[in-house]
Specification:
The complex is a heterodimer of chains A (356) and B (130). Chain A has 356 residues and is of the alpha/beta class. The longest helix of chain A has 20 residues. Chain A contains 13 helices and ten strands. In chain B, strand 3, helix 3 and strand 4 form a beta-alpha-beta unit. A four-stranded parallel beta sheet of chain B has the order 1-2-3-4, covered by helices on one side. The radius of gyration of chain B is 16 Å and the shape is globular. In chain B, helix 1 packs across helix 2. Chain B is an alpha/beta fold and 130 residues long. The chains are: A alpha/beta (356), B alpha/beta (130). Chains A and B meet through helix 1, helix 2 and strand 4 of A and helix 2, helix 3 and helix 4 of B.
Chain lengths: 356, 130
């Protein structure tokens, strides 16, 4: 990936400045080795005084594989098999005493001992995002935190119930895995102000070119001459198109086009307005008090244990939330007024894993 | 002039920050921190430790040992580059190799790489970390 720093290294640096924030590095389990990564995360956890987290991701494209000597990429199910053994092995390394680790598994055959003692958190907090059957099972077995895209109340509740239900099979209680949907927000002085701002934000996010690019993903043909402020294209989508290879497609393109045409006709929408209508909208829109109440409602009704805030502007987009929404959350008594402990596990209410 | 910060058995950032601060007050060129995949001596990942103290220092060069035998060139490259970014242009790289059987086995390799090939540029491209 071009233009992106190496995440563990870059998080060691701010560990020097904010003294309490958790530091979550996204690191791939497909093209790394367990010993090296166990050591690097143990180092981050020691050097930050117990604030490290590992967002475990896997690779499934040859483009990433080309950066590594082994090359290639494993298929979907194998990625999770490897990741599960990888995370378990990294934990074995951190748990091991003087004798070190001897591991013979389907994916890894290693022996060794780390040059660091078990870090303050025992293990960094393991974060995972993945909605597939394998991803959910991996989370139930291995993760401390799950990131999800299910941002409506109903979808959040269904995901929450499904993943929590899987924990018992691994001898884990429902509080041992925290579910955190990604959440966007738009604030206003009143709810009506916020609605107006939310519409402006959506228009800014879906500019004319973005709308056309989005349309091409469904139609599968070059639509660069299409007028984004006119109606949807007359031509039908090309279902076997190679134009959009490697990009996410949206089910059966002809069915999608038919549905979109119906929505556009019913509401009298241009192409761009239609794309704004059918693509993701902000999770929470309203006055600070309204947004605080919505957030609380999600948590009280088992749609989320917490949230990953995704401001629509970076940097600066978080300021408003900090200044205007955190205080009413604190007044409701549902968000802390201060940290209660030094480590990330303290913040999340996760116990330090016992050494087996 | 440079100084080695190597401190077996120290894993706390404050210790390394204090030493680097001392070296910086003396206007040294750089500090080094040794590293390997061996279990002894006890120490943190050198690149991580120097990235940790980068914001606490302003001028001194930061030179970790980063090994090249059982690591991926892609990871080593972006990690050292990132140290250069977070220190605003003060990173160095002490190139190390892994020669022991213990280090090889920790990385899933049956035996260490032949001494004659750990340092040299081989005509045959290496397809695995072993």
């Amino acid at each position: 990936m071009v233009g992106r720093p190496e995440s563990i290294t870059v998080l060691n640096a701010p560990a020097a400045v904010p003294a309490r924030l958790g530091l979550a590095a996204t690191v791939n389990a497909t093209f790394n080795e367990p010993y090296e990564l166990a050591r690097r995360f143990a180092s981050l956890d020691h050097l930050s005084g117990g604030r490290a987290a590992w967002n475990v991701v896997t690779s499934s494209d040859a483009f990433t594989g080309e950066n590594f000597r082994r090359g290639g990429y494993p298929d979907h199910a194998d990625r999770y098999t490897r990741a599960a053994e990888f995370v378990r092995l990294a934990q074995e390394f951190r748990d091991a005493g003087e004798d070190g680790v001897r591991h013979r598994g389907p994916q890894f055959e290693v022996e060794g001992r780390l040059s660091l003692p078990r870090p303050p958190q025992g293990h960094p907090v393991v974060i995972q995002a993945g909605d597939s059957e394998e991803g959910r099972e991996f989370a139930a077995a291995t993760a401390d935190v799950v990131f999800t895209r299910h941002s409506t109340l109903a979808a959040g509740q269904a995901f929450h119930a499904d993943v929590k239900r899987r924990l018992a099979a691994y001898g884990r209680g429902p509080d041992e895995l925290k579910i955190m949907p990604g959440a966007t927000f738009v604030l206003g002085d009143t709810d009506a102000d916020a609605d107006e701002r939310a519409a402006e934000v959506r228009r800014a996010q879906v500019g004319p070119q973005t709308a056309i690019a989005f349309l091409e993903q469904v139609w599968g043909v070059d639509l660069s001459d299409h007028d984004p402020d006119g109606p949807l294209p007359d031509v039908d989508p090309e279902p076997d198109s190679t134009l959009v290879q490697g990009r996410v497609r949206f089910g059966d393109p002809r069915a999608v086009a038919e549905r979109w045409r119906a929505v556009a006709a019913e509401k009298g929408l241009t192409t761009r307005e239609l794309v704004i209508e059918v693509t993701g909208r902000q999770s929470f829109v309203g006055s600070p008090a309204t947004v605080a109440a919505q957030i609380d409602h999600f948590v009280q009704n088992d749609a989320a244990d917490g949230f990953i805030l995704v401001p629509h502007l970076t940097p600066g987009g978080l300021d408003e939330f900090v200044d205007r929404v955190v205080p009413p959350l604190q007044e409701r008594g549902v968000f802390r007024a201060d940290y209660t402990g030094p480590t990330l596990r303290d913040h999340l209410g996760l116990p330090v894993p016992r050494r087996p | 002039m440079s100084a080695a910060l190597d401190s077996p058995g120290r894993f706390d950032a404050g210790h390394y920050a204090a030493l680097a601060g001392l070296a910086e007050r003396a206007t040294l060129d750089f500090v080094t921190l040794d590293d390997s995949f061996a279990a002894e001596p006890g120490r943190p990942d050198a690149l991580a430790a120097l990235a940790r103290i980068a914001p606490l220092t302003g001028r001194i060069g930061l030179v970790p040992t980063v090994t090249t035998t059982h690591t991926e060139p892609f990871h080593t490259s972006i990690s050292v580059n990132t140290l250069d970014w977070v220190s605003r242009g003060r990173a160095g790289w002490l190139v190390g190799v892994s020669a022991t059987e213990a280090e090889a086995r920790a990385c899933g390799c049956a035996s260490p790489r032949a001494a004659s090939t750990t340092w040299t540029w081989s005509a045959a491209p290496s397809r695995s970390p072993c």
